[in-house]
Amino acid sequence: MNLFFLINVNLAFKKCIAFWRVLKLILIVQIVLTSCHNTSLPEININVTDEINFNTKIPCRVSIKNTNADTTADAKIEARGGLSRKYEKKSFEVKFKNKTALIDLPLNESFVLNANYIDKTFMRHKICYALFKEMSSENKAPQCRYVNLSINEKYNGLYVLMEGVNADFLELNKRDTLAMLFKDPPVFVKEKIDFVEDKANYYQQKFPKKSKSDKTHYIEKFKSFLFDSDDNIFAQNIEKWIDLKNIIDWHLLLYFSNNGDGIVKNFYLYKQNTNTPFRIALWDCDHSFGRDCDNELNIKPSDLPFERSILLKRLLNNPYLNYRQKLRKRWWELRNKNIFSLEHVKSEIEKNKSQIANEIEANFKLWPVNGQFYVDHNTFDEELNIMLDFIQMNTQVLDRYFKTID
């Protein structure tokens, strides 16, 4: 066999191998690039070795990038939620051993990654929290940031990262025996609630730990006052129990957002120390601004069943308090400050939209909202229009209502 022929065959074979190696490398690069979700948002990756479940915290490694101060830290994670558990896209709570700063949020031991599955706008929580804090510097609600979440380096969708609400966040004096915190305590309803999260902790005491100092007797004393005191005693003593300015702001935000789900739950009730009354901290506002539960619209403005809450019912109907007049005065203050207005909320919507408009398609491709438990084909922009139309209509209705109060 000709030597030159063998040399040429050998060279051709080597070129073939080199070509396939280059082609393989190109294919690998393409796969990597197409599997990555390019974003300008902060990216959080959660590395776990076990499946993330409800009610069981498992070890994880949290990594954040695309920020000025990227973070990597060990933590524990669990899935969270009540009725939202049925949805495929889960929310999570991440708890660190020590206080940690994520992105530019303040130091905290815990953060919530909210899936916002039933809120296609990803804004209802954020806007309600922002409004509540704008109303008064003493009103407490979590700060939020948009993030893209990956689990074990696999894209898991657009999330709202929220500060955890706990004793430190609410500035409780932990050495004070009358500092306490409850989540969704069934204190405003008389009937026994059977769907509390922790059956052994009926009032959902979060601080101090119930095993260390049970505050059931104190909150039941408050509940007895709400249900059993006569109108005169109620009027004389209600501000010893609650911060009335805080309650009025909360009440008006329920009116403005039409959040009927927030009347008897979806809030934290806390007392900072012996000398402060109970206050409300805001939580869970996705049933608002034209949406109710699941895929139901709620576009009938300001028809909220406040009588479900004994606190709001008694405040509204007490002949000695002039509470309705206080509501009216505060409503017009907030209107004049442009906090409760279509223009202001529209500016908040545009600010949020500028951050997430390019993220929506990827999220909905992974987690279609018209799924098994939420059949609704509305687009992101259509959902925003529902919010805007509702706010315009509801503000006009409330203006007329508060003009009628003497």
Brief summary:
By secondary structure, the protein is α+β, with helices and mostly antiparallel strands. The protein has 10 helices and 11 strands.
Explain this structure to me?
The chain is α+β, with helices and mostly antiparallel strands. Helices cover 37% and strands 18% of the residues. The strands form two sheets. Strands 1-2-3-4-5-7-6 form a seven-stranded mixed barrel. Strands 9-8-10-11 form a four-stranded antiparallel β-sheet. A hairpin with a 7-residue loop joins strand 4 and strand 5.
Which labels suit this protein?
406 residues; alpha+beta; 7-stranded mixed beta barrel; 4-stranded antiparallel beta sheet; 11 strands; 37% helix; globular; disordered N terminus
Strands of the widest sheet, in order across it, are 1-2-3-4-5-7-6
Could you say which overall geometry the principal axes of the C-alpha atoms support? globular
* Percentage of residues in DSSP E strands: 15-25%
Give the CA-CA distance, first to last residue.
112 Å
Compute the CA-based radius of gyration.
Answer: 26 Å
Query: Which regions are unreliable across 5 or more consecutive residues at pLDDT < 50?
Result: 3-7, 22-35
Structural class: alpha+beta
Largest sheet: 7 strands, mixed, barrel
Task: Quote the average pLDDT.
Answer: 89
Count every helix, treating DSSP H or I runs of 4 or more residues as helices: 10
- Approximate helicity band: 25-40%
